[in-house]
Amino acid sequence: MRTHKFLYDFGISQDDPATELKTLHLSKDDRVLCVASGGEIPLELLVNSEESVKIDAVDISELQLYLSNLKLKATMELEGTEAAGFLGYLPADQPDRRYWFDRIKRLLPEEEVQFWTENDRIFEKGPIQYGRYETYIAHFAPIGRWLLGGREKVMGMFDCTNVEQQTAYFDDELKTRRLKVLFKVMFNRRLYSNRGVSEHGLLHMDKRQTGVRFFHKFREFCTNTPARENWYLQFMLFNRVLFEDALPDYLQTKGRQRVIAESSRLRFIKQTYTDRLKESPPGYYNKFAFSNISDWLTGNDIMYLMDLVARKAGLNASGLIRYIHSSGINPQALNKRIKLDPDIGERLLQVDRFPFYNLIPFKITGTAGDKEQ
Predict the structure, then answer these.
(1) Burial group, residue 373, by CB count within 10 angstroms (0-12, 13-18, 19+)
(2) Within 10 A of 177 (CB to CB), how many other CB atoms are there?
(3) Is residue 4's pLDDT more than 80?
(4) Which ranges constitute the DSSP H helices of 131-188?
(5) What is the model's pTM?
(6) How far apart (Å, rounded) are the C-alpha atoms in residues 199 and 225?
(7) pLDDT attached to residue 3
(8) Which CA distances in Å does 116 have to 69, 123, 130, 166, 270?
(9) Region 20-42: what's the mean pLDDT?
(10) What is the pLDDT of residue 207?
(11) Nearest-CA neighbor of 305 among 330, 332, 325?
């Protein structure tokens, strides 16, 4: 049994699946390769795509796969608000979570049941609350709310009826200048490394600028999209989703129905993104959601992966790269079949619900086996 507060790196995926959906344009018979992480991306792609679309979600962390599968099975077994309460998006009592888990565990492999049973602290707050990143942010969230002017002041954002009113409220009512110091402290590499994110994920981190950059991004986080509809914003500020109709699509009624009916087209696979692509037949995958794996890879490794995508991709191939610290891409050395579109990425970022990343959409010309022009 683990003694530290977190169980895995991420309790939730920080990628906004609405952005992936706008970029990938999923259509009949597409095959998607994505990162499992906290599970939201593969689940949201599942419920927002045609029945013929296949989704493979890979992760090198077995525990991230356990968490993703738990979200899938909770959605299949429980009602939407029950699943949200069990998982920790919404508040729930510990006895209720234990009761819900007793219903879910019949759908889980034995080793996963054993893991969750041994780590029964998840019943206190819900499993999504026990990611490394989530436990770190939860430690600072009350201080952040206080610096902004207090809980009631922050809640005022959620009373706004449009983003223009929300932006004016943020600028006029919230005391954001105080927050800059907190961001500098929170995202100082000495403190952030291994507490907020694994050291490996900070491979390209510029320790002098990250806190300041995140502070400036925080305004966009609070003002780019309607606060009442942005569950990421609600969760980061209050460690819960405030409004049930803001819950992820896979927990909404229509989404749950599709998860129950179509879960077989989603696979969780313990493997690196690169190895999965290397082992796949040419042309098998044609849609690629990278998340921010370039932050975790060397420049040479991400360039190798991009070249592999260019050589292996199927018809009408496209993808999305997210990164915080470095894309790892050298455009001059990029396979000519890959066409990057950072301008579209900038426009997408204006309505992304978690705008702390940089976005680079890309398309692949031709199909697997074509010779480079």
Answers:
(1) exposed
(2) 9
(3) no
(4) 132-148, 151-155, 163-173, 179-186
(5) 0.95
(6) 31
(7) 43
(8) 12, 9, 12, 40, 18
(9) 98
(10) 61
(11) 330
DSSP class of residue 193?
B
User: 52-78 in b/e burial notation, b at 16+ Cβ within 10 A?
Assistant: ebbbbbbbebebbbbbbbbbbbbbebb
**Which residue type, as a one-letter code, is found at position 7?**
L
The amino acid sitting at 214 is F
pLDDT-derived band at 55, boundaries 50, 70, 90: very high
Query: Which residues have a Cβ under 8 Å from the Cβ of 142 and sit 6 or more positions away?
Result: none
Domain boundary assignment for the chain: 130-246
Sign of CA dihedral 129, 130, 134, 140: positive
- pLDDT single digits (tens) 136-158: 999 999 999 999 999 999 999 99
Question: Over the Cα atoms of the chain, what is R_g?
Answer: 20
CB-based contacts of 73: which residues, under 8 Å, 6+ apart?
A: 104, 107, 108
**Any residues with CB less than 8 A from the CB of 150 and at least 6 apart, and which?**
none
pLDDT at 200: 87
CA 268 to centroid of chain Cα atoms: 15
Residue 123's identity, in one-letter code, is: F
In this structure, the number of other CB atoms found within 10 A of the CB of residue 161 comes to 9
pLDDT digits (tens, 9 = 90+) for 281-331: 999 999 999 999 999 999 999 999 999 999 999 999 999 999 999 999 999
Determine the pLDDT at residue 356. 96
DSSP state of 56: E
Q: What are the φ and ψ backbone dihedral angles of 318, each rounded to 5 degrees?
A: -155, 170
For residue 347, name the pLDDT band (cuts at 50, 70, 90): very high
